[in-house]
Amino acid sequence: MAKYLWTGLLLLLLACTGRRVETLVIKGSDTEVNAVLQLAERYMELDSAVSISITGGGSGVGIAALLNGKIDLANSSRELNSHELQYAEQHGLRIVPHVLAADALVIITHPSVGLDSLDMTQLAGLFAGDVTDWQALGARPGPVSLYGRQSNSGTFMYFRDKVLGRDFSPTLKQMNGTAQIIEAVRNDPGAIGYVGLGYATEPDGSPRAGIRVLGIVPAGQTAAVSPLHRDNLTQGNYPPCAPSTSSASAKPGAASAPSSISNNRPKVAASLRQTGICRWKKERL
Amino acid sequence: MLIRHFWDQFWQKALAASAGVAVLTLGGIFLLLLTNGWKAFSQIPLSEFFSAAAWNPAAYETPTFGIGAMLMSTLLVTLGAMAIAVPLGLGTAAFMSELAPARLRNLLKPSVEMLAAVPSVVIGFLGIVLVGPFLARVFHLPNGLNALNGAILLAVMSLPTLVSIAEDAIHAVPKAYKEASYALGATRWETLLRVTLPSCRSGLIAAIMLGMGRAIGETMTVLMATGNATAMPNGLFDPVRTLTATVAIEMGETPQGTAHYYALFACALVLFVITLLINVAAERLAASYRKKGQ
What we know:
The complex is a heterodimer of chains A (285) and B (294). Chain A is of the alpha/beta class. Chain A folds into two domains: 22-101 and 245-284, D-Maltodextrin-Binding Protein, domain 2 (3-Layer(aba) Sandwich); 103-234, Periplasmic binding protein-like II (D-Maltodextrin-Binding Protein, domain 2, 3-Layer(aba) Sandwich), CATH 3.40.190.10. Chain A is built from eleven helices and twelve strands. In chain A, strand 6, helix 6 and strand 7 (173-175) form a beta-alpha-beta unit. Chain B is an all-alpha fold and 294 residues long. A two-stranded antiparallel sheet of chain B has the order 1-2. In chain B, a hairpin with a 7-residue loop joins strand 1 and strand 2. Chain B is globular and about 75 Å long. Chain A binds chain B through residues 57-58, 60-61, 63-64, 67-68, 83-84, 87, 142-143, 145, 150-152, 156-157, 160-161, 164-167, 169-176, 180, 183-184, 187-191, and chain B through 54, 56-61, 69, 128, 132-133, 136, 142-145, 223-224, 227-232, 239, 241, 249-250, 252-256, 258.
């Protein structure tokens, strides 16, 4: 008898949790998560009927979750590749991409390296493992210590495809998150790494203590462009900028979020600026 | 009477079922790993998988799946951990059961066992902020995210298992052995070294192997503290990426049904087989000392 009573009680409890709440689950890019968090907080102020949950983990994680139908929106620092688009098509998913902004990827080193800028060839040579000692670039002699993200990161793919054009050196230390890269670069006198601009700067735009943000000489030019001057980003002079894309699967209700966000663009622009993400310009890529 | 009989039967069956669940789960896991891992080899040649070829599933051009460097990393970190944990653990166990006064022993044993309660993510965090910078300073390295860091952390994590089982083994040595030794005029140190420890040798080996099994399977700590570079390590001061870390890092982003997906199952299968062999060997040794102890 008691057994049936417990079963009944359990069913009753389960029934209670079936209350309908409009929730939007967002997952993906680590470099984008802070910006989207700002957007979501602002959006929830405007529309109290919606609750938004956001987690990072990397663009690849977000896209995989979107394709597996586990979330409503995926944040990504890269476009979907052909395999992913094919997978979506096979499973009857219509993916709606929506470009939010461009994220400036900045190159940071430990201050004791002593360099202020690199050109694109030097940058590729360092991360591909051709240059293993700083002396080759005229800096303080010492081994080059590479820091980056893991292959589930959209910036990993973006950097590899657009900056290196080949594979990363196998000696690249693959950190779990962008904050860990900053921490490691601070403590390693031969360190170089790449991070989203928002992670390398304070809210007022000045670089964070203990690291040096390098200027980049664009291909075919001679003068270095620093990502720390906002004009260089908004005018598209600074080369490594990855698109921050949010992709929604075609589930009713889900795809409405990004468009409502862009409709409120002036209101959210101010909060976005604090995270280091700037206005999207297509020709920059 | 009928109801009493019913409940008696019910609980007997329920307990048998819960015991069965464990066995079924183990079998299920093995089957799942085997069926999925096997599929990897229809797309990846065995000679590539077990070679020193790079593990580069997200390659710019052609992906390669070689676990040589990761297998080496796992072995390097585990053996390094054992080199630290075995003398420390066996010393602690011998001290606790033979030399320490009862009051000290009652303090020591729970403290060591409490180490097992520290979450692995906390140990990994300490590896990043404490052990890493310390190693970098002491050995004049650019950074402390390397195999040695992982080995030190894993040594700490395998100590509770190692000490606890070794202590039980030493404790189970019949008193008569020691009394005979003392009667012959041996000191406590001589008795410990020549009589007590040798007579529970199989138990001590079992303790070491179970500690090793614990170290091989650990994921979060090594993922955080060893740098995760996929290059073949040349020594304890190189960053390493273990098999466990690779599966943990890449499983979440891999589309199902791809060669990469099945290759990760194959990695898990390799790990499973290694830990299973270690644990079976340890169990057999432990069983033999239990018999002797009676």
